[in-house]
Amino acid sequence: MATTKVIERKPLTFAEKTFLPQIATGLKTTFGNMLKKPITLQYPEERPVIPENYRGVPTLVKDPNGREKCVSCQLCEFVCPPKAIRITPGEIDAESEPDRAHVEKAPQEFEINMLRCIYCGFCEEVCPEEAIYLQDVFSLSGYSREEMINKKAKLYELGGTLPDKHYKWDKKKAAELGGNPEH
User: Fold this and answer.
1) d(Cα 1, Cα 18) in Å, to the nearest integer?
2) 0.85 exceeded by the pTM?
3) What are the residues facing 133 on neighbouring strands?
4) Which domains does the chain have, with CATH numbers?
5) Cα(122)–Cα(132) distance, integer angstroms
């Protein structure tokens, strides 16, 4: 059978009874922090410095001629871990867009559910056309779930036009015509 051990507590001193040492210690900490330079950013007036390889909102971009770069290969949809991307492939009308006749498909619908997106960057890495980019936008909000699903028009609005290092379609068109691709 275990016996209970009683520990005698020593009586408090006069200073401890008045709590003055504890108050002085707290005031010392407070005044010490008041004299330090603040590290809090006053968001949204002050913005943090965004690192070079920051992975923000995924967007669609167009080539320098304003054409869609996405050919609806659906690789980004297949590689997306939370299944946040949905693409409905569509055909390109060769008569209305003769400069894109060699491209088989374009997305009829393209949407990214930002409530599901985990900003992993797999979609950007796997895209063979360099049509999807993660921008440096980090502040994204909406009043409803529907507002957080970015449709094709919104994705192009966020992404805009980026310079194309390859000029792939222009080279193909020039090669078909037998001309110089650098025109």
Assistant:
1) 42
2) no
3) 59
4) 58-173 (3.30.70.3270)
5) 10
